[in-house]
UniProtKB/TrEMBL annotation:
InterPro entries xref list: IspD (IPR001228), IspD/TarI (IPR034683), IspD/TarI_cytidylyltransf_bact (IPR050088), ISPD_synthase_CS (IPR018294), Nucleotide-diphossugar_trans (IPR029044)
Species per Swiss-Prot/TrEMBL record: Halomonas icarae
Entry function: Catalyzes the formation of 4-diphosphocytidyl-2-C-methyl-D-erythritol from CTP and 2-C-methyl-D-erythritol 4-phosphate (MEP).
Coiled coil: none
Class of the enzyme per the UniProt entry, highest EC level: transferase
CDD domains noted in UniProt: CDP-ME_synthetase (cd02516)
Keyword RNA-binding (UniProt): no
HAMAP family per record: IspD
Reactions accelerated catalytically: 2-C-methyl-D-erythritol 4-phosphate + CTP + H(+) = 4-CDP-2-C-methyl-D-erythritol + diphosphate
EC number assigned by the record: 2.7.7.60
Site (Transition state stabilizer): 17, 24
Organism taxonomic ancestry: Bacteria, Pseudomonadati, Pseudomonadota, Gammaproteobacteria, Oceanospirillales
Descriptive protein name: 2-C-methyl-D-erythritol 4-phosphate cytidylyltransferase
Gene Ontology molecular function: any one: 2-C-methyl-D-erythritol 4-phosphate cytidylyltransferase activity
Amino acid sequence: MSASPWLVVPAAGQGRRMGTDRPKQYLTLDARPVMAHTLTRLHAAFPGARLCLCLDPDDAWFDPDWVPFADWRRVAGGAERADSVANALGAIAGEARDDDLVLVHDVARPCVDVEDLRRLLQVLADDAVGGLLAAPVADTMKRDDGAGRVALTEPRAGLWHALTPQGFRYGLLNQALRQATASGVTVTDEASAVEALGHAPRLVPGRRDNLKITHPEDLALAGMILAAQASVHSETTPEGVAER
């Protein structure tokens, strides 16, 4: 296994639910595109990682200056997230070993905590399967009846919100995505594909402010999270000590 992980960042989505003139990864957040924030966080945790950035072939918004990684490549994104990830795995087929760790992170999660990223890598370093950042469900969960009314209240004990990154061995993830495609299984995240093979991914507790920008109000919320994180960091970093 290589010491440096592979990073896959699917960024080919159109983000139509945002109702804006551009994909959500290119919306401005604290004077920078969302994508730039996300890649900066990943680089801070994994400066030696090898990045596959999955973009729409007709993407006219992307600027390579936003990529801080020395070793990176542009990969054609697919119609769905799983397609983009599969394309990335195919692009590195001649270089990646079966036991190399591949971390997949949503481009629309710019608030992911650097220490969470480092801890995830540490936890998964010796895990034969892999796992994901996740947060225990804190809210009461309701299941609807299909007509806008509550059918029942779901017990929240043991329920987790799946976050990203999600990290799995190259060979296993490749097999899982191929099997899902062959079986017609809908894959909402990498963990679900691995689960379909009968494996149990590791749940690694992560911060709840690892927000995924999906709806218009999420952009403002992400801005507040970044500001709060910066404030806490400045209060806890002694004067004259450089950030790692």
